[in-house]
Amino acid sequence: MRRRVVLSSYGLFLGAKGERLIIRKGKEVLGEIPAHEVSQVLIDTGGMSVSSAAMRLMLKHGVEMLVMRGGKLMGRLAPARRGSNIRLKMRQFSIRDSVEGLELAKAFVTGKMGNQADLLKSLAKNRKGEVRELLRRTAYKIEDLIKRASEVRGSPAAVRGKLVSVEAEAGKLYWSAIASILPEGLGFTSRRKKYEGPKDPFNVLLNYMYSILMSEIWFVLESVGLEPFLGFLHVPNNRRPALAADLMEEFRQPVVDRVALSLAGKLKDIVEGERLTKEGRKEALKAYEERLKVRVTFRGRNLTIRGHMRLQAERLASAVMGRSEYKPFRVRW
């Protein structure tokens, strides 16, 4: 499995020597990595530079470079993709409003809700009394909503509208239960996206890591030839890759939410105002990367979670072409 390189320190320089990427700070060489071992370079810091030789080497080996600022993807350098699997993209467009496309939309929603319920049950195992019962009771309510989402029928617009409504109902239940187990004083009462300007540190952390997850999903979708901006659940939007938002749904809880909960006790030290501190970004990225290295079994395959992301993108491409049924990523813990 090729590696993801994260650069988040001020004053770094990324250069090239032969077929290796070189990371330096001043005259000190911090690392040398063969370019063919790298899948993506993520830059999340100001005040660093990248040589043209490093960019050419990354393009030669199919390495994508992402530039982020405050948890927002600013831009990307990616190799030109010849052909880009036109037949797959045409099929993706043609089935969006068909029964096949709407079934994929349902899969993304029910997969997300299933992972919400599973995470709450997992959290309940280590708790007692009223909190334990609240977590379990909420999980069962979300499972009832999964049944409702699975049975949605109607026109494409009506189906998507109902799915979004059910998803929102599950989300309110889920985040209310999560709020009950967070450390006191964090001020988290409900989920708030970045554009809503959340003040509490837990939402700040979630928004940052969801942006990282989005960039990862975007990359794997492009790598298998799917069009990231044409979604089945989310409305196509020139500013947001809708299909990446679709596929991301089933990885939110197993990846980001679990990491965020593990860091909850440190939030007051790693968040300043409405942003993560420099050390906070480092800690969040380290925990995120470690989480993706965890091996789990899904559909008979024991892989890292990052490996399953890639495989899910391939399975989604196969389902779009009508070759197989798509099942959302879901692992019971």
Strand arrangement within the widest β-sheet reads 1-5-7-8
Write the CATH fold name of the largest domain: Four Helix Bundle (Hemerythrin (Met), subunit A)
Order of helices and strands: EEEEEEHEEHHHHHHHHEEHEEH
Radius of gyration: 20 Å
- Binned, the helix content reads 40-55%
Task: Please give the CATH class of the largest domain.
Answer: Mainly Alpha
Which regions have little confidence, pLDDT < 50, spanning 5+ residues?
Answer: none
Percentage beta strand = 15-25%
Major beta sheet, specifics? Answer: 4 strands, mixed
Could you write a compact summary of the structure shown?
Helix content is 50%, strand content 17%. The chain contains 11 helices and 12 strands.
Detailed description of the structure:
This protein folds into 2 domains: 3-77, CRISPR-associated endonuclease Cas1, N-terminal domain (Ribosomal Protein L15, Chain: K, domain 2), CATH 3.100.10; 86-320, Four Helix Bundle (Hemerythrin (Met), subunit A) (Up-down Bundle). 50% of the residues lie in helices and 17% in strands. The protein is built from 11 helices and 12 strands. It has helices at 52-60, 86-94, 99-124, 129-150, 156-179, 201-223, 242-248, 252-263, 267-270, 278-292, 305-320; strands at 3-7, 12-17, 20-25, 28-34, 38-43, 49-50, 64-69, 72-77, 271-272, 275-276, 295-298, 301-304. The longest helix has 26 residues, at 99-124.
Looking at this protein, list some descriptive labels:
50% helix, 12 strands, 4-stranded mixed beta sheet, globular, Four Helix Bundle (Hemerythrin (Met), subunit A), Ribosomal Protein L15, Chain: K, domain 2, 333 residues, alpha/beta
